[in-house]
Structure formats: C-alpha cells, structure tokens
Hints:
Layout: H1 3-14, E1 17-19, H2 20-26, H3 34-46, E2 50-53, E3 56-59, H4 61-76, E4 85-90, H5 97-109, E5 113-116, E6 119-122, H6 127-137, E7 143-148, H7 155-162, H8 165-188, H9 193-211, H10 228-246, H11 250-254
Antiparallel strand pairs: 1-3, 2-3, 4-6, 4-7, 5-6
Helix pairs in contact: 1-3, 1-4, 8-9, 8-10, 9-10
Amino acid sequence: xxxxxxxxxxxxxxxxxxxxxxxxxxxxxxxxxxxxxxxxxxxxxxxxxxxxxxxxxxxxxxxxxxxxxxxxxxxxxxxxxxxxxxxxxxxxxxxxxxxxxxxxxxxxxxxxxxxxxxxxxxxxxxxxxxxxxxxxxxxxxxxxxxxxxxxxxxxxxxxxxxxxxxxxxxxxxxxxxxxxxxxxxxxxxxxxxxxxxxxxxxxxxxxxxxxxxxxxxxxxxxxxxxxxxxxxxxxxxxxxxxxxxxxxxxxxxxxxxxx
Length: 259
C-alpha cells in the first residue's frame, strides 16, 4: 500500500468521518496534490478499506482491521506466553482466489506464520481479532481455528523456517538508525504543529511496516541481539516529542492520539 493511502487510513481510524475538503486542507501544504489525495481515496474504496456518504469518507471494518494491526501487535508484546499455539486452516475455492489472498495477507499482518500451504500458526490467542477479520472478509464458511501444544519435531528449527527473524532484526536496526537521524534533523529546525503531525504519520508508517512483519514471538525463540525493544523505545520517544508540538491544536491532536 502506498504511503498516502496508509496516512489517510491512519487519520480515519481516529476520526470516524471526514469531509474530502478537510483532507485536501490537511495536505494542501505538503507534497501531495488534490488529485493524488482523490486517487488515494479511490484506491482505498476499491480495496474495501473506506467508503463514503456524500462528500464525507469513513473507514470500513476491513480498513480498521488493517490499520489497527499496528496497535494489536503492540498489545501482544505485553502478554505472557501460555506455551500453546493457535492454528488457522482454510479451504477456499480457486474461484475465490482474491479472497484467499486477502485472508492470507491479513493472517501474515497479524503475525501468523505459514506452516503449510493453508495452515498458519501463532503463539498468541487472537481469536477475538480473527472473528472480526473473518466477518469483515466474509470467509466464515471456509476457516477453522485450533489451539494446542507442539508435541513432535524440532520447534526451534520450525520457527526459524517459518519466520525470517534475521531479516526482521535488520529492519529494526535500520529503523533505529533512521529514527536517530530524524531526531537530529527534526530538532535542528523549528517544528510547527503541521510539521510535527506529518512527522508522527511518517514515524508510525516506518515502525508499523516492520511491526506487521514481526510475529511477536516469545523471548526464548528470539536472537540474543533482538532490536525490537530499542526500536520501540525510540519510537515512543519521538512520538512523545512530536505530539508535544501538536498539543495546542486539539483537532489535530485527535488525529494522532488514541482515544
């Protein structure tokens, strides 16, 4: 998904309905033309992530599921692992290939790893989120969910085969370097509320892209030099600093702060 599309979804997640004129105003002083904003809304509507009533746009359940995966992943970090694995299986006919691909991508974004062709696993119980996702995608007749223990095989080896932990760790390391550069650049010049607002969107997009690939595995499966914690720390630091510049604008603050 393109950067502008994600930003608009992020805004709509916090403001249930927004007029296209307000979106055009938000982006009027940025590097996006009015037409590019309209094109982004068209793409999002075609994907089923937004819809509109008159001149006002709102996020759909499918769009909310996509963009909230970021917050859901952060919540998973606080859970203590029970030792149980959750398994999702599906059998979707070839005539519904697009639906099958959408389901597969949603599972990957939630952190499920592909064990076999139509079998995905996660160390987390995400049944409530799965129910909402299945309903939004209308795949209930085709899916099953199981929970249980891994009782045979080399679990550590399977984890390494399923998830590219080395690649994800490199992404976290690169994010830390990027964030440190941005911290210096943003602090060197005076930051107004609109600059800070778009810095927050950029920050969330950069960190969120990595988080969607992170399965949030228990510590026992992670490399000793796992960089997710350090990356999260600098994310929170920059978010707090940029939010302070927006604090004087309640309408804008609503667009970046969780309710």
